[in-house]
C-alpha cells in the first residue's frame, strides 16, 4: 500500500541552507571528468586545459606507474581484505614504508589511506585533555578537525606569525604541547617558517607536526619541504600525501620509531580501517623511482611558475607571494571568482574558483604541473589577462 509521506522538517532546513548558499555564490557542484588526469582532460564532451589539479609532476597517468599498478593487481589482488593490524599489511606496503622513511630521513613510517585520515590519526592519538595544540589559522581543514577531535587546548595563531606562536607557547602550562602546521599552504601556496617553528618547539619542549601534502615530490629534490629548507629534528613528525606530487593515492607519517610504534598502537583512524589495496603501494614504488630520477620534471615545473608570475606581474590582479605550483589570484567577491572561472572555462581553460569558508578571501586557484607545456602556460596567462580586462 502506497501513501504520501509527510514532509520531514529537517530536510526543509537543509534545502533552505542550500538556497542561501546559492544566493551567496557559495553553492558547490562536482565536475565529471571523462578522461584520465592530465594537462588536458575531457569535460562535458570537450577537451579543456586543466589548471585545477594537484598532480604537480604529471604522474597520475604515467605509463610506468599504470603498469606497476596493473602488475600489482595481478600479483596481490584488488583489495587488502583487512586492517593493517589484522591481515591487511602486505610486503609491498611494508617495503614502501621503509623506503619512505629513508627518503624522509626518519627511522620509521606508516602508510595511511588519505592525508585527511593521517591527520585524524596522529593528533588525537598524541594529545588529549590537559594537553595543548598550536595551529596556524590557515591550516587545512583536516588539521583543524584533528585538533578539535583531540580535545586538547586548541590555540590558533595568525598566519605564519611566529611571534604570536611564541607568546601562546610561553603562556601554556600543558605537559604535552604540539605545533601543527601545513608546510605548503594549499590555498595560498606559501611555505611556513618551519625553521623558526622548530626553534620554538625546542625552546618550549613541544613536538612539531608538519603536513607536507603539497611539498612532497616537488620541493627538496622530491623529498619535500624539510629537505628544501634543510631542517631535521627528532621532534618533527612528518606527514605527506601520495596523491598529489606522487600521482597515486594515500599518505604516510614518518617519525622516530617510538612515535610510529605508539601510533600503530593508539591511532584509531589507522587501527580501525581497512588498509588500502597493496596494488597502490606497487604503483607508488614506481612513482618514487620517477621522483628520484627524473629531475627535469621539477625543473620544468619551476620554469612554469616563473613564467606565470612574470606574465601577470603587471596585470590588474593580486597575486599572492607564492613560489610553489599553487598560484592564487585574489578577487573582490564570490560572484567575481565564479564569473572569471566561467569565462576561462568558456575559453576551454579549467581554473577553480575557491570561496569561503574554504578560504577567507575569494580567489582563482591556479595550479601548475610539469605536464603542462610552455605554450599551455603562456595561453593561460593571456586568457587570464583577457578575462580580467573584460571584467573591468
What is the CA-CA span between the terminal residues? 61 Å
In the predicted model, the low-confidence regions spanning at least 5 consecutive residues are none
Please identify the top-level CATH class of the largest domain.
Alpha Beta
Q: How many beta strands in the DSSP annotation?
A: 14
Biggest sheet overview: 7 strands, mixed
Q: Estimate percent helicity.
A: 40-55%
What is the CATH architecture assignment of the largest domain? 3-Layer(aba) Sandwich
H/E series: HEEHHEHEHEHEHEHEEHHHHEEHEEEH
Tell me the radius of gyration: 22 Å
Structural category = alpha/beta
With strands numbered from the N-terminus, the spatial order across the biggest sheet is 3-9-8-7-6-4-5
Find the CATH superfamily of the largest domain. Answer: Type I PLP-dependent aspartate aminotransferase-like (Major domain)
Tally of DSSP helical segments: 14
Mean pLDDT: 96
% residues in beta strands:
15-25%
- Return the domain count: 2
Predict the CATH topology of the largest domain.
Aspartate Aminotransferase, domain 2
Question: What does this protein look like?
Answer:
This protein is an alpha/beta fold. The protein has helices spanning 9-23, 63-76, 91-104, 115-126, 141-150, 162-171, 194-203, 225-229, 257-266, 268-271, 278-293, 295-311, 334-346, 374-391, and strands at 40-43, 46-50, 108-112, 132-136, 153-157, 177-182, 207-211, 236-241, 251-255, 318-319, 326-330, 349-350, 352-354, 363-367. The chain has two domains: 30-60 and 295-391, Aspartate Aminotransferase, domain 1 (Alpha-Beta Complex), CATH 3.90.1150; 63-292, Type I PLP-dependent aspartate aminotransferase-like (Major domain) (Aspartate Aminotransferase, domain 2, 3-Layer(aba) Sandwich). The chain contains 14 helices and 14 strands. Strand 6 (177-182), helix 7 and strand 7 (207-211) form a beta-alpha-beta unit. Helix 2 (63-76) runs antiparallel to helix 11 (278-293) and helix 12 packs parallel to helix 14. The chain is globular.
